[in-house]
Amino acid sequence: xxxxxxxxxxxxxxxxxxxxxxxxxxxxxxxxxxxxxxxxxxxxxxxxxxxxxxxxxxxxxxxxxxxxxxxxxxxxxxxxxxxxxxxxxxxxxxxxxxxxxxxxxxxxxxxxxxxxxxxxxxxxxxxxxxxxxxxxxxxxxxxxxxxxxxxxxxxxxxxxxxxxxxxxxxxxxxxxxxxxxxxxxxxxxxxxxxxxxxxxxxxxxxxxxxxxxxxxxxxxxxxxxxxxxxxxxxxxxxxxxxxxxxxxxxxxxxxxxxxxxxxxxxxxxxxxxxxxxxxxxxxxxxxxxxxxxxxxxxxxxxxxxxxxxxxxxxxxxxxxxxxxxxxxxxxxxxxxxxxxxxxxxxxxxxxxxxxxxxxxxxxxxxxxxxxxxxxxxxxxxxxxxxxxxxxxxxxxxxxxxxxxxxxxxxxxxxxxxxxxxxxxxxxxxxxxxxxxxxxxxxx
Length: 443
Description:
Blueprint: H1 6-20, E1 27-35, H2 41-54, E2 79-83, H3 89-101, E3 110-116, E4 122-130, H4 136-146, H5 167-181, E5 202-209, H6 210-220, H7 224-235, E6 248-255, E7 269-276, H8 283-293, H9 295-302, H10 308-312, H11 318-325, E8 333-338, E9 345-347, E10 350-358, E11 367-374, E12 377-384, H12 394-408, E13 433-435, H13 438-442
Parallel strand pairs: 2-3, 6-8, 8-11
Antiparallel strand pairs: 1-4, 1-10, 3-4, 5-12, 5-13, 6-7, 9-10, 11-12
Helix pairs in contact: 1-11, 2-4, 6-7, 7-8, 7-12
């Protein structure tokens, strides 16, 4: 084991991966859509200070090439403000999010952008951070900490003692090394002649009531994550090549926090491979097969030796190992799921009515997907290379797969209405919606 804590070890591999792929943004984040008056600069600086206090590594400047650390920053360096077209609604908001995310942060490793003007009595705060500093659970944690809510602790974790090399641990290392070395044949979703990135990524969102997905999981005897993945397996079918060999092999990030680490901030995830059963003809069959496929996740979560490969490798090799794992020939896409607060959050006299997740797109990949939970809603966030044809249809197809799963288990469907927005409106918060980027709407 190395002489620093687990979060640092996991984070370094992402910094190394990003340095090896300079044209790939390693930023993850979220957008809080808030009802109430627009905050002042003084208020936002105070909020930034709370975020920095929650996780001190966020106070450091972005690293110069070849350096291990950067210098300190001031709160103003983390803040941007963008006034959107008046009454532009969600079309203007999502267009701005897409433009901002296409320009990664350079001087700092995390930043906050105030977006306002698109709707009366509403604004949005966009938070982005390098994946080497935070994972999705930590983003939720620092949001809770900044709002004074009980959540994840800012305390660092102590280094783990060096594990003993039992026979089981040695076997786990051999299996991990063999899996890394054996050629994999993951199915690619993009045009064979187009190498990603072909341009700034597209970003799409959809949302549906969370109780709806939980009801499907309960009737099917599976987890909510199984429902999410099975619906995705069906939704991806139109993008599979007509003639191909291989499998749709996705990497699912698994939270590795345990015991006294449950409240730790940083990056505490490792990837677990899952084969999506896209080839099966019905939604019910895909859900059953997904339950079997995600056995890897359940076993890995209980296995103390699941991360033995990175425990064994010198830290300087972690980036190369991660690049091997995420190579497009080995991983079709990254698919993640981030649980969030069950009740609406407040910022003073303001109410946060949606938290939209922001996913990154690994080098050479055409698609990544994230499911975020917040206050009874499940938000699907899609980030895709622009070379993927008709990708604007993916959120609607995912929602249609949920409907097919409901039909398979004879579940009554909640009353819904189509709306041209991805953000749950307080008056119609059971509505199911799909939104595309502004570029597509203007086309």
